[in-house]
Amino acid sequence: MNARIDFFASQTAAPAMKHFMAVGRAMKDSPLPAVTQELVALRVSQINGCGVCADMHTKDAAAAGESAVRLNLVATWREATVFSDAERAALELAEEGTRVADGAGGVSDEVWARAAEHHDQEQLTALVILVGFMNTATRLNVITRQPAGGYRPGQFH
């Protein structure tokens, strides 16, 4: 499969992508735990069917020491016993924040409250920005059919 657009070679897209990718890098330095960030990024990628993002976040998480079992169970996190309550709350918020068209009102008060039980205000802020960032990234990649499989851990950091 060939990409429809090379964002980094486009005179129109390259400057915007530089700033857009800076948002993702800024989240890496946020107080939201790195493992939670990778799990959330992977889940949003799965929901939106973005192979290139799933490739990236699976490989980055594995390179950081995340287990294959946990990575393989992200898609079924509700039934899996390998995630902490804080990770589960973050994954739930990520799902509702990604599937906004599936539910009236977006993220429910109950889901927000569960996330707030386990994450302080700065972590919640980072989580919301990360979910929004990942939804944009996945949509850009899916629309333009970016190919997956060639990512090297840490390539964009």
From TrEMBL:
PANTHER family: 4-CARBOXYMUCONOLACTONE DECARBOXYLASE FAMILY PROTEIN (AFU_ORTHOLOGUE AFUA_6G11590) (PTHR34846), BLL7811 PROTEIN (PTHR34846:SF7). It comes from the Bacteria. Residues 16-96 form the Carboxymuconolactone decarboxylase-like domain. It comes from Streptomyces smaragdinus. Pfam families: CMD (PF02627). GO terms for molecular function: peroxiredoxin activity. InterPro entries: AhpD-like, AhpD_core, CMD-like. This is Carboxymuconolactone decarboxylase-like domain-containing protein.
